[in-house]
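Recap from last week: sequence in, structure out.
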Amino acid sequence: MPILNYTTRIHYEKSIMEIRQQLVQHGATRIVSDYNGLIPTAIRFSLPVNGQEVAFSLPANYRGVLASLEANPDVQKRYRNEEHALNVSWRIIKDWVEVQMALVEVRLAEVAEVFLPYAIGKSGKTLFQEIKGGAMQMLQTPQE
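Predicted structure tokens:
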């Protein structure tokens, strides 16, 4: 089965704009886009958490999306290119952000809580990157 939004016709710039709007509506105080040449690779933003600004980074791994599109025999050839993978990756992120904000709106979670894996620490890495890189001591295995 093909991945979510694999047939989108919505340009990545529109998806990025919609993500930015969602973030601002839910308290983001600063938003910056990261680029590799002309390719948008991440959105970084700040949110107040307990009176302190915390930075977050949402990456768009369009190459992973492209690999998924190329690996799936059900995906037509016209969808197997970098430009389309960018469109799909940012559309998926836009949908994910909207779902996270729905959780916030119905008080199932706080804004900072849903973005916590993407919080940027003093090293410049996200919390997830720190844990993946060996900082497992931050986590504790529950005792039975």
